[in-house]
Design a protein that fits this description.
With 374 residues, the protein is an alpha/beta fold. It has 15 helices and 13 strands.
Length: 374
């Protein structure tokens, strides 16, 4: 089976990570994957090349016409059995492949709402255009039930819809005391201190302001003296003036550790006692599943499929409600160590039973095989 994957970029991101996992797991089972990045190689592109995967950057932003000719040439050279596009821009570009005569096309959607005020206008309109042309792909794979529902309501073809939940490498995300001790020593956090963790790139959808305002309430109301907070992600650093100003406004600048981008997030989860998702918009938030697989008790907002992921293994609160988010954190922090340990174990088991990476790979391959045998 020869598959050409088309994606906007291969920088760090949720859909990019799923594509990376899918390709690396299927390369050894008679699947030839060719990756086309509409922009540059990116973080995952370099890692894929190191593993022997063909990655072709088109640099679409520099020359649109030339990039389309390059795309046509790639298709003529590799003659794929299947074309899988990832996210709205790539889904739209895949229509060009249909014009070239390729019928076995799969769209992948890893988003729910696209609010007009905060979304790229190009992305917003491409989403609307794709909804009208959603009869073109053989399947539209959504990573979340909520994403499926929202897009079908927008006009996407219901008969093409399939939901495949993201899967996670449980050998990478572990409950590991050595990692816990290592990270806490690095960050100068003692073993008796409680740690709240937040992992998200800086964007309006992740609602960092909501998290910080909730933190202020936690520090005002919670009688736990030894409490640390770590924040991780792209632009989570002192150079982010907007973030720094929000922390200053809430008198938290000296109480939060800004760690920026880290390549060892799987280790960092182990240093946390409570993981918090504060997002207002999500599809299938990977960080919740990663934290749960690492045995961290979670407090999360009702964004996308967050409730489906967490089940009864954590605390679910409304979006854009700092008071409820704070109450959830306080409740979790006040649990006994034994109760939090029970939640940690149950969280790990839930991810193992429902969201193991092998199940995800099986579901993708099942869909691909169905299309090729139609």
């Amino acid at each position: 089976m020869k598959i050409v994957h088309i994606i906007v970029c291969l920088d760090k991101g949720g859909a990019e990570k799923i594509l990376f996992d899918l390709v690396t797991k299927t390369q050894s089972i008679q699947v030839e994957n060719i990756i086309i990045s509409l922009t540059s190689i990116g973080y995952y592109g370099q890692m894929l090349q190191e593993r022997g995967v063909t990655v072709i950057p088109l640099n679409l932003k520099k020359n649109h016409i030339l990039s389309l000719f390059m795309l046509r040439n790639v298709m003529k050279r590799y003659k794929p059995d299947l074309i899988c596009s990832w996210l709205y821009h790539a889904n739209f570009i895949s229509i060009f492949c249909r014009l070239l005569g390729y019928k076995n096309i799969v769209w992948n959607i890893h988003n729910t709402y696209l609010p007009w005020k905060t979304s790229s206008k190009v992305t917003f309109f491409l989403n609307r255009i794709c909804s009208k042309l959603s009869f073109i792909p053989k399947r539209i794979i959504y990573c979340a039930d909520k994403a499926n529902k929202v897009h079908v309501e927008l006009g996407y073809n219901l008969n093409r819809s399939v939901v495949i939940y993201n899967g996670y490498d449980l050998g990478h995300y572990l409950m590991n005391n050595e990692w816990r001790n290592k990270i806490r020593a690095e960050l100068n956090i003692s073993q008796h201190e409680l740690v709240i963790g937040h992992v998200a790139r800086y964007s309006s959808a992740k609602d960092h302001k909501n998290f910080i305002q909730a933190l202020k309430i936690v520090f005002e109301r919670c009688n736990i003296l030894s409490l640390k907070v770590i924040m991780v992600g792209n632009d989570i650093n002192e150079q982010n003036i907007e973030l720094i100003n929000i922390l200053k406004e809430n008198q938290l600048l000296d109480r939060v550790m800004l760690l920026g981008i880290r390549s060892d997030v799987n280790l960092l989860y182990n240093a946390m006692d409570v993981f918090v998702l504060s997002s207002s918009e999500e599809a299938f938030p990977n960080v919740i599943a990663e934290a749960m697989a690492s045995g961290v008790a979670c407090v999360v907002t009702e964004a996308g499929d967050a409730g489906n992921i967490i089940g009864d293994c954590g605390i679910l609160v409304p979006i854009k409600n700092s008071l409820e988010l704070a109450n959830g954190m306080i409740t979790m922090l006040n649990f006994s160590p034994e109760k939090r340990a029970g939640l940690s174990y149950n969280s790990r088991m839930r991810i193992t039973n429902l969201f193991d990476i092998d199940k995800m790979i099986h579901n993708y391959l099942r869909i691909y095989t169905e299309i090729l045998h139609d």
